[in-house]
Write a structure and sequence with these properties.
Largest sheet of chain A: 6 strands, mixed
Distance between the termini of chain B: 36 Å
Mean pLDDT of chain B: 95
Number of strands of chain A: 10
Distance between the termini of chain A: 40 Å
Radius of gyration of chain A: 14 Å
Oligomer: heterodimer
Helix content of chain B: under 10%
Shape of chain A: globular
Radius of gyration of chain B: 13 Å
Number of strands of chain B: 11
């Protein structure tokens, strides 16, 4: 049969608006979560992380929310800029204190910032 | 800091040829990771080194793939012989002790096997 590639979910946002990228994780034992940003032609870049004993963490223009009850993670980007256009990956880690090296990567969400 | 440096950026080769990808991790980082990224399978961990020692190579697809880390500042990923299905972007990443999950990625090598 014909092979098909991963179809990335895409989110289009007007420049200056806020964006929310969602991620569902699978393992209730995961205790550490990271968001990475991958721009075209580049490697993934660390944005922000959160441990399972927190439900919210803020960075510069970014906020990560964690809902362990429904195993859901979100990344909020405030006042989006053209440079925010990228694919965003959530990743989870299973291990005490997140010390395990193995990350389980999500499929990614493509964010497009419209001028 | 120069970041993780990978070479070459692009490699086009013919099926059956040997391919060697190179990586220089960030100085002071003692964990090194090789990943492969494709549209079909996303980002896959191939091998993980800690203090130059391979810890987990369970992601290496088959015996045609091998990786070495002769010292703290250099690693190679070799494919011999290469096949068209090996076409992908290969990333090297490094991280510090105690923060293994905050991985710093290189720009990648885009490999095309014809």
């Amino acid at each position: 049969g014909e092979s098909v590639g991963l179809h990335l979910p895409t989110l289009s946002v007007q420049e200056g608006d806020n964006s929310i990228i969602n991620c569902a994780y699978s393992n209730s034992a995961s205790d550490y979560f990271i968001w990475y940003k991958q721009e075209s032609g580049k490697g993934p870049q660390f944005i922000i992380d959160i441990r399972s004993n927190m439900d919210k963490r803020q960075g510069q223009r970014v906020t990560v929310l964690l809902n362990k009850t429904v195993k859901h993670l979100s990344l909020q980007i405030a006042a989006t800029q053209p440079g925010d256009s990228a694919v965003y990956f959530c990743a989870e880690n299973i291990g005490p204190g997140g010390s395990n090296y193995q990350l389980i990567w999500g499929a990614g969400t493509k964010l497009i910032i419209k001028p | 800091d120069a970041g993780v440096i990978q070479s070459p950026r692009h490699e086009v080769t013919e099926m059956g040829q040997e391919v060697t990808l190179r990586c220089k991790p960030i100085s002071g980082h003692n964990s090194l990771f090789w990943y492969r990224q494709t549209m079909m399978r996303g980002l896959e961990l191939l091998i993980y080194f800690n203090n130059n020692v391979p810890i987990d190579d369970s992601g290496m697809p088959e015996d045609r793939f091998s990786a070495k880390m002769p010292n703290a500042s250099f690693s190679t990923l070799k494919i011999q012989p290469s096949e068209p299905r090996d076409s992908a972007v290969y990333f090297c990443a490094s991280s510090r002790q105690g923060a293994k999950n905050i991985q710093y990625f290189g720009a990648g090598t885009r490999l095309s096997v014809l």
